[in-house]
Give the backbone structure.
Amino acid sequence: MNYRAEPLAIAIFIFFVIAVLGLSYFFARRSKSASGYYAAGGKIHWGVNGIAFAGDYLSAASFLGIAGMIAVAGYDGFLYSIGYLAGWIVALFVVAEPLKRLGKYTFADAIDAKFKKRGIVLAAAISTLIVSSFYLIPQMVGAGSLVTPLLGLPFEAGVAIVGFVVIIIVATAGMTSTTWVQFIKGGLLVIFSLVLVIMILSRGISTTPELYHDFKTIGVASLTGSNISLKDDSYKVVKLIQAGSNTFVKLSKDNVETLWKLNKSKNVLEETQTITHTSSGKVLYNGAPKEAGKFYLVGHLADIEGNPEVQTGSTDPFTFIETIKEGTVVRWGKQVISDGGDSITVYYQMPTAGRDVLIPGLKFKIDPARGATPLDRVNFISLMIALFLGTAALPHILIRYYTVPTPAYARKSTIVAVAAIGLFYLLTLYLGLGAMTGGSLDITNENMSAPLLAKSFGLGIFAVITAIAFATILGTVSGLIVAASGAVANDLMHKFLKIQMSDKAMVFAGRTTAIIVGIIAMILGVLFKSMNVSFLVGWAFAIAASANLPAIFAIIFWKKATHQGIAASIIAGLVSSLILILLSQDMFTNVYHLYNVQAPNPIGQPAIISVPVSFITLVVVSLLTQKSAVSAAEPVLGKGVAKVPEAD
Amino acid sequence: MSHGPATEWEKEKSEGYKTKLGLFMFAAYTVIYFSFIFICVLSPRTMALDVGSLNVAIVYGFGLIALAIVLALVYNYLISRREKLDRGSDSKGGKK
C-alpha cells in the first residue's frame, strides 16, 4: 500500500506528544522520592488505576494485532481476546490482594518478602528483565511499523520517537506520569473503539464497500494441457505458471503484464495482486511503482445468502454477525513464485464460507478433518494456557498493584480493569470483522486494519485513532521501562548487590536505568525490525507464566515452599521456556532464516511443558531443602492487611 | 534504605473468606475456559452449531468475556459486603 501522511493525523499526533510531555513535566515534582518514582506514592485512586491497568495491558498486540488477525483469519484472532481477558481472572481471584500486601516497588519485592534471600531477588529480577524485553521489542517494532504509514516517516524514526518520548515520561516522573499516560490512553482507546464499532454497525454491510476495488474475472474458452484461450480477446496469454496446487496465468494487455489465478471449478481467471522484486532491483506493485497507487485495499463479502448485491443498512450487533455467517467472505491467500529472475509475491482470492470464518481453525490448525496433527493441537492448547496464566505474572502489570493504597483498592482497580478490558475485547471482533468486510484490509500489513477501518469513515476519526494507536505503544512501553528500571535499580543494585542508596539515589538510579533501558529498547526495536510482533508477545506470556506464576502461587498458598525452591522454579521456568522457544521451528524459520531445516523442538508454544517443569521444580527442590528452611515464614494468607493512608 | 512491605500489618478477618471465594470462582472459570478449549480441539465442528442466529463459538466466546466481568462484579460485591460486616462487628466490639 502507498500511504500518504495526513496533516490532521500529524497535527493530532504532535498535540498528543506535547500533552504527554507536559504531563510528565507537571508530575516531575511529585516523583522525587523512591515511593513517588516507582509506585506513584501508592496514592493513585483505584478507578484511575483500573483504567491505567487497561492502558498498560492493551498494547499494540491487542489493538492493532488482534483486529488485524481477525480481519485476516476471522475467529482465530478473537481467541487471543478470550485468552488475554481470561488471564485477568487469575489476577483478580488469586493474585491481586496478596501481591499488594507483599510488595513495595517491584515483583521481586513481593516474591522475596517472606525470605529476604538474594537468590530469589536475582532470579526474579532476571525474569522481570527477560519478560519485559520480550514484551518491549514488539512494542518498539510496532511503533516503527505504525509511524511509517501514518506519518510518512522511516521505521527507525518511529522507534526513535517512541524511545525518546518514553524516556522523558519515565525519567522525569516515573510511575506517576506513566500512570496518567496509561489512564488517558486506556480511556481513549475503549471510548473510541466503541465509537468506531457504533459507526461500523450504523453503516452495516455491503457486498460492494465504498473503498472496494472490483476485481475482475475473465472466462476461459478452452483449457488443454498448458494451452489456454480466453473469452476476452483483448488479453494475450503470456504463459502458465504452476505453483503447488495453484495455477497462475500471466496475461498481457496494453504492454502491461498481470497475473491471474485459474479457478478450474468456475472455469474463469481471477485477478490477483502482486508485488514483484525484479532482477534489476525494482519493486513493482501490481506491475507499477508503489506511488502509482495500483495496489488495492481488500476485504468484502462476495455474496450474502447467495445474493451478490446486498446493502444491509444499519444493523444491530447480532444481525451483523449473522449476516457474515450467511455470506461468503473473500479472504486472500499468499504465494511466492519465481518467474525468470523475478520473485513475485502473489495474493489471490480465497472465497470462504462465513460460517467457517466465525469458528476457530483458519489460522490455528485444530481440526483433524482439515489436516491438523496432534502436535498442532498441543500447540494451540499451549498457547491458550500461556494466555490464561501469563497475565497475572507479567511484571509490568504486577507493579501497578503498588500504586494504590490498600489490597482492597488493588482488588477494586482490577475489577475496573476487567470491565474496561473485557468491553474492549468484545469490540475487537467487530473491529476485525468490520475491516474484513468493509474494504479496509491491507494484505501486506494486517496490523493497519483498525486505522484503515477508521479512515473509511473519514479523516477525523482516522487521525484520532492514529494518535491513540501511537499512545497505545507509549503507555505500554512506559510501564515496561518502569518495571525494568525497578528490577535493575531496586532489585539488582540495591537488594542483590547491597549497594547502599539514599532515597534520592534510588530515584537517580531508576532514572538513569530508564534512560539506558530506553536506548537499549530502541536498538532492539531496530534490530528486530522484521520480527513478527505477535510471536514475541505470545512468548512473553509463556515465559511469564512459566517463570513467575508458580513462584507467586507458592508464596501465597504453600507453607512448605523454600527460598531455594522458589528461586529454582523461576530459573527452571525461564530456562525451559527460553530453550523451547529458541529451538522452535518458528525461530529457525523466521529469525534464524534456516529454511528447510527441521528444528529440534516441534512445539512452538512452550507453556504446556515449561509451566509444569517450573511447578515440579518448585515442589521437588522445596521438599529437598526443608531442613535448611526451618525459618520459612508463613504463606502470605493469614498475614493480614497493611494499614495505609486513604487514596487521593 | 530499608525494604519489604513498608506498612504495618493489621489482621484481616475476611481473609479466609476472600481466599475461599476467590479460589472457588477461579476454579469455576478455569473449568469453563478449558472446556471451551477442549471443545475447540476435540470437537471443532461443535463450534459451528447454530445457537439462535449465532453459533456456539460466538456465544461461548462472548460468554467467557461477559462471565469474567460478571464474576468480577459479584466477587467484589460479596467481598465488600463481608468487609463491611467485619468492620461493623469490630466497631461494636470496640464499644463494649
In short: Confidence is low (pLDDT under 50) at residues 638-648 of chain A.
